[in-house]
Amino acid sequence: MNRRDFLVRAALASSVPAVLPIRSRAQGDVNSEIRLALIGCGSRGNGLLGSLEAAVARGCKARLAMVCDADLARARQTAAKHGNLPVEQDYRRVLERKDIDAVIVATPNHLHCLVAISACLAGKDTYVEKPLSHCVAEGRVLADVVARTRRVVQCGLQHRSDTGLNPTRDFVKEGSLGRLLAVHAFWYRIRHSIGKVAGPTPIPPDVDYNLYCGPRPVAPLMRKNLHYDWHWQRPYGNGEFGNSVVHQIDHTHHLLGIKTPPTAVRSFGGRFLWDDDGETPNTLLAAFTYPGFEAVPYTVEICNLPLTPGQPDMEARFLKKTVGTFLLFENGHVFFDRGGGYAADKDGKRIRKFPGDGGAKHLANFLECMAAGKPGDLNCPVEEAHRSSVACHLADLSHVTGTGGHDLASLENDPPPELARAAAARAGFKEHLGANNIDFKKYPLRIGAALRFNPETERFTGSDEATRQANALLADSYRAPFTLPG
C-alpha cells in the first residue's frame, strides 16, 4: 500500500462509525416498502426498472420514488414513464433525502464507486451496475466501506443469479470430466466506430456537464455522442472488458471457486480499422494466471470486428457460439453463459444441460436481502464483484503499459510464453485479425507488459518501468468536490 492509499483508508476509518444500522428502515422489517431512487437514466437504468417491476410483481415490497440524471431531459423522460416521479439532477441531493432507502446506480463507470460509497455513508443500500469500479483502488475503498457500514450492496453482475449457474458449478466441482486443462472466455460481438470529431461537440442544454464529468476534469466533449460512447474513452469507461467480458470473468470465478484476483496477466491486441475517438481495444486477448490454477491456461478474448469483412453480424465460430465461457477437461468440456449451459463428453455429445434464466431475479435478490436485513445472502456482493472488476483492469493495464509496432508475424515467429501456452486461443485470435486484412503499420498490434500482481496488497510486483507505470494507474485522480468521501 502506498502513502496515498494509506491516507485514503485512514480517513475512511476515522470518519465512519464502527457500527451503523444495516439500513434506515427497521432492520428485517419485511412489511415495510423499500423506496428506491434511480441514479442514471440511460438504457441500462431504464432496463433495470423493468427488473424492478418484475420483482414487485413477484411480491417484493418496493417502489421507484424518484429519478436522477445529470441530463435532465433523460431524467424527465424516465419520470414521465413511471407516473411523473420527482426528478433530481444532482445525485448528492438524492442521498440527502430521508424518504429514500436505497439507490440503483446506473451511471457511467467513472461514477460507480463515488456514488456507491457516498450512498453507503449516507445510510442507503445500493445496487450498482458493473463493472463495480473504474480502477482497482476505488473498488477496494468501496469494499472496505461496505464492510464497515454493513450496507446491503449488490453489483449488477446478473449471471450470479442465473438459475443455471450453481448447477453448472456443482457439476464442475464433482470432477466427473477429469482434470481441468484450459479455460477460454470469449465475446464476439460487432461494435462500430464511434466516429471522429474535428472539434468539441456542443453539450446538450439540459446537461449539467460539471456533474456529468464528476471526478474527471471538465474537458471538452471529444466524441459525437455524449451518451453510451463514453464506454470507449478511458476517463469514463473501461472498454469491452469492463462493459461485457466482466460477466464472463465473474461467472468463471464462481464456477471454479476462485476467491482471489489473478496473480499474473498479459494481453495482446489493439484498436484496429477504426480511426475514431475511441481509445480502448476492439480486439484483445488476455492471458491470466490464478492461484491454484497455475498450470491451466486461462484466456479471455474480445473481438468486435467480423470474421468476414463487411458481415453485418458476428459469426458464431467458437462452439457455434458468439459469447460464453469454455472449460476444457480431460474427458469433455463445459460451456456456460447467460441463460445456462451444458456439459459434453470427449466426442462433443451433450451429457448434461443446465437451463438458465439470464439472472432475471438479480435485482429481486437485492431487494429481498434488504427486506430481510441479510447482506450475506446477496448473490453478487461487493468483494466478489471487486475481484472480477480487478481482472478486467489488469488486462487493460497490461495493454496500456505494453509496446506497439508488432504484427501477426511477430506473434507467430516468437510468441510470448503466455500466448504460446494457449494455442487454440492464439489460433482464433490470429484468424480474426488476418481475416480483416489489417494494415499493422497504421494500426499496430500492441503486446502488453507481463505483469505480476499481489492480491494481498493489490499492487503489481517488480521494479521494471512497465510495473511502475501500471502501479501508478491503479488509482484514478479525483477533482474537488468529487473526491472519494473520507
Q: What fraction strand?
A: 15-25%
End-to-end gap: 17 Å
Largest sheet: 12 strands, mixed
- Stretches with pLDDT under 50, minimum 5 residues: 1-24
| DSSP strand count | 18
Which structural class best describes the helix and strand composition? alpha/beta
Mean pLDDT level: 91
Count the DSSP helices: 15
What shape does the CA trace take?
globular
Helix % is: 25-40%
Describe this structure in words.
This protein is α/β, with parallel strands linked by helices. It is 33% helix and 19% strand. It is built from 15 helices and 18 strands. It has helices at residues 3-15, 43-57, 72-81, 91-96, 112-121, 136-149, 165-174, 209-213, 239-256, 362-372, 382-400, 408-413, 417-420, 423-435, 465-472, and strands at residues 34-39, 62-68, 87-88, 102-105, 125-128, 153-155, 180-188, 264-270, 283-289, 298-303, 323-329, 332-337, 340-345, 350-355, 403-406, 445-447, 451-454, 459-461. Strands 7, 8, 9, 10, 11, 12, 13, 14, 15, 16, 17 and 18 form a 12-stranded mixed β-sheet that branches. Strands 3-2-1-4-5-6 form a 6-stranded parallel β-sheet, with helices on both faces. α5 (112-121) runs parallel beside α6 (136-149) and α7 (165-174) crosses α9 (239-256). The protein is globular and about 65 Å long. The model is unreliable at 1-24 (pLDDT under 50).
